[in-house]
Amino acid sequence: MVEFRLEHGSEQEEAGRKREVKAEIPAVAFEAQARLLAKAKMNAEVKVEGFLSAKTKRSKRLVLHVTNIEFMEGA
Q1: CA-to-CA distance for 26 and 8, rounded, in angstroms?
Q2: pTM (2 d.p.)
Q3: pLDDT digits (tens, 9 = 90+) for 27-49
């Protein structure tokens, strides 16, 4: 298991205007995805797929559970 944080940055359109979006998202990966991340360089650009779930049964804090990771060119 690897726990990490993803930084997201993009420009989106909302109500007819462009909006800069930035967020930091807690994430976790298991098995093959965790092994890939353990070998990755810090700040590598990635594309991930997964699902949101509570961190624990007692916590309502959301965590992204990564089920697929793709390293972008040069990362």
Answers
A1: 11
A2: 0.81
A3: 999 999 999 988 888 888 999 99
Q: Is residue 35 helix, strand or coil?
A: helix
Q: How far apart are CA 5 and CA 12, in angstroms?
A: 21
Please state, in angstroms and rounded to a whole number, the distance separating the CA atoms of residues 1 and 63.
13
Quote the domain boundaries for residue 48: 2-71
CATH of the domain at 40: 2.40.50.140
Total domains, the chain? 1
- Per-residue CA distances from 22 to 2, 9, 42, 57 (Å): 23, 5, 18, 28
